[in-house]
Amino acid sequence: MTGQQADIQWYIAREGKQHGPLSDAEMRTFVAQGHLKPTDLIWRAGFADWRPAPAVFPFPQPDAAPPPPPAAPAAPAARWPESGPSQHAQNYGGAGGHQGGMGESYGGDSQPSFDPERIRTTDGFDEGRGSNLRRIVGALTLIALLGGGGWYFWQSGAVSSLQDSISSADGEVPTVHAPDASTSDTPLSAQNAAPAAELNASAQELDAKIGQLAAWVVVKREFPDWYAQKLNEAANLKAENKTEAEIDQFFAESLVALRREHANDALASSTPHLKQVATAFLQNLKALSEKSMDACYSFISQGETSAAVLEVLQSPEAGAPVQAQVASIFEAIADGRRSPTAHDKAVKEDYDVLVQELTKLGWQPNDLQVFSNPSLLGKEPPQRVCQMVQDWFLAHLSVPDASVQERLLVETLKPVVSG
């Protein structure tokens, strides 16, 4: 892979949700395994706008069905050809993208140009598994994000949608923004029906309820206008006689939308902030596991907006670890906005160190194979999935070399802050 290709970061938008970034190699794995959908939108630096996936990558087309046999009383119905679908050559460079890289031609019936190596179950972890682990985990993360099953099946349900037209400077990631007040789902009739004094009182009441929670303390400090807007929108929901649970859901979804919008800021925070995010995430999983395995698994599979997690949040004591984890992300966002830090990318040797730490935790080659395969991991009981994700973060936090740990954390926290 050339240096230029190594720097490429891909983003996918599906059903109003943005996912990524993914490196060129990781995106190759994602495409080669058939997880990209024709309805997906694709973006990378250099694109002025989101592009439909079929305009960027080739999709297999079924062979034309053979003509039906002549009409006869006992003639069988026409059948699909027994041969599999062929892949027709298409060059991404001709579609306006860069030459080479992700757009290399996929010829005829040949296999895709990138075929990720399978993890071998020989004694111990072999020397080349570090780089393989990075590719697999990167692809696994996005597969899971988009509904492929497995750890990090993050479906935030954020109240956000793709803009009809996104113009971005080269190198700037187009984000899915939370709707502003003009796009509020609250009917104008309801807004006009509630007296201003009543709405103001409701907003103050809601502020007293959420304004002291750890995550909202940071958000209120860093995004005061956004915070005031959400209080007003929630007050309108209350005027519509929405239930407390529906309003709590609105607040949770709004937080997710804001977090995803500023994911790049979080990843540009200092190393201590990155480490704090990972630590808070691990502590949250442990606390949820102690309460119920369903809560832990729901958080991994659905994020902060899952019903089980929202139930936990109703208790200030039980919900404190979740609040602390979300607060740590917004503290990182604040730090990244004020003093962005450039982090080096993880290299093969870094992942060799990570594998060593996983081995110390008792992982065997089969564990890594299960963890890196969404189909296999999806068949595991929730208890094992929760434990494996905890092990994954504990291994990162146990890396003794600070520089190695920093590079690894930047990669592994991408789905945490942007999922």
Automatic annotation (TrEMBL):
Residues 58-73 have a biased composition (Pro residues). The keyword Transmembrane applies. Residues 10-54 form the GYF domain. Residues 58-130 are annotated as: Disordered. Keywords: Membrane, Transmembrane, Transmembrane helix. Residues 115-129 have a biased composition (Basic and acidic residues). The chain crosses the membrane at residues 136-154. It comes from the Bacteria. InterPro entries: GYF_2. Residues 93-106 have a biased composition (Gly residues). The keyword Zinc-finger does not apply. Pfam families: GYF_2. This is GYF domain-containing protein. It comes from Hyphomicrobium sulfonivorans.
